[in-house]
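Give me structure tokens for this 383-residue protein.
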Amino acid sequence: MPALLYFFALCNLIIGSSAFVLGGILEPVSRALGVSLAASGQAMTAYALATALLAPLLIMMTVRWSRHHSIALALGLFSLGCLVSALASSLTGLIVGRIIMGAGAMFSAVASATAVGLVAPLQRGRALSLTNVGQGVSYAVGVPVGTWLGLEYGWRLPLWLATGASLVIWLLAWRWVPRRLHDTPASGSLRAAAGQWAVLRVWLRTLLLFVAIFGMFTYIGPVLVALGQLSSTGLAVVLACFGVAGVAGTLAGGWASDQFGSVRVLTYQLVVVGLMMVLLPMTQGRIGLTVAALMTWGLHSFGTMAPQQSRLVSLAPSQAPMLMSLNSSMLYIGSALGAIVGGLAMSHVGVAKLSWVGAPFVALSLLTLLPDWLQEKRRTDPA
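Here you go.
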């Protein structure tokens, strides 16, 4: 794999850690800012919506820029957003910082599109999994360490660390990312590519899956405490286990997609994700089972990323940057909607049972694969 992909993985590690550490420290944030837990969760929503709406807009505005300058802009914005968040003295200030961070999250789509252009088609799944593995590592290292630091030493400390780390990768990107990458010139119409029913199904599947995931994960700290009565150290350890599973899932998903095809892999993954979301509340009070269910959930949730992106690229390779950015938009719109759904459902089902709210959305996402299965069956059946 090209060395640049390892740098992209590092960038995604910093971005993932900085963006999602807030989920583990929502309680001290809500106390410090004088707002409810559900209200503080909307800072996660602000980040998600900004990524969904602003990132594609920025990609369209910078379509003629070199990848070097697009990446530098993205990481610069993300660093600025981290700084504003760390300085925030109110929920409004925190949300403004999160919006700027969300705009900078355009990096992930640009990096993924660059990655698939650097390898042969049969290596796309592995290239995408390597580029995105930093997100999984962020859950294994960045989020749990940041959560522990935030609970022990104040919620601002992980935000200041995020600011420093983001500035470092911005400077490294300016120095290391080549001024000219061998991009594939866009051919055909973006409207025609985006209008394909197969493309729309990928986006819909992403939307539904992330409504399901973030209906619970936005409130992952309170959920795990409710399930296992965890201390701050115990919570950090469990989040680290979840992150390790995410790393394994990201890498395994890319490999499996190249070996068995994205449709088969996604079907298996979604079935397991839905099953774990049903079973997780039943593990309350049995921390070993809670960790096992959570790790299995993380393994298969993260495993969907590379097959989804690989499927999208195969449908319209020359339009990969925008298609993947819009797929990221679906991811973050789903995340935002999930945060809203979880916040609304919390008072009705209880924090420990939030994963049940997401299970029907996983079932709907599984149904979006049915046309792909029928198409493959027609292709393989003799006339």
